[in-house]
Amino acid sequence: MSGQSLGLIETVGMAAAVEAADAAMKSANVSLVGYELTKGGGMVTVKLEGEIGAMNAAVAAAISAASRVGNVYAHKVIARTAQNIEHIIHSRETVGVVQPEPETPAPVAAQQVEEAPAQTIPVLQIDTSHSASCMDIADETPQDPMKKGPRPGPKKK
Predict the structure, then answer these.
(1) I need a surface site. Which of 88, 131, 136, 152 has the fewest CB within 10 A?
(2) Most confident of 84-93, 131-140, 146-155
(3) What is the value of pTM for the model shown?
(4) CA atoms within 13 Å, Cβ hemisphere of 56
(5) Angle at 48 between CA 51 and CA 30, to 5 degrees
């Protein structure tokens, strides 16, 4: 986080906070750290990270959008935060975006494999009275597609 800018938008109510976060994320290239609930008063603080120019645009859009839904109590953009304040920003009270934990593959239980029944192929009666190969048919087809040649197969009587 060091070197990134921090954006904070404090709203009254969760609906305004969600609207602020949505507008901020859609308006600029910023990352949502999460949100934090206060210990009373119904205030919610949305926390964002990103470059300073993008952060200014995102916070301005968030304030405008959240003001239409509810009240914006406070907002702040801090450019290039110091190294040691990461613990305040990424605290236990911050809810929302969590870094995914590495997944360990679950042990696979030995399963009995059922053998599929053998598939049968139906046999059709084929008329073998006229013997022709594909080469015979290729010789009979005309080279010009506009000319119609004899149809392959047995001739009608």
Answers:
(1) 131
(2) 84-93
(3) 0.59
(4) 4
(5) 45
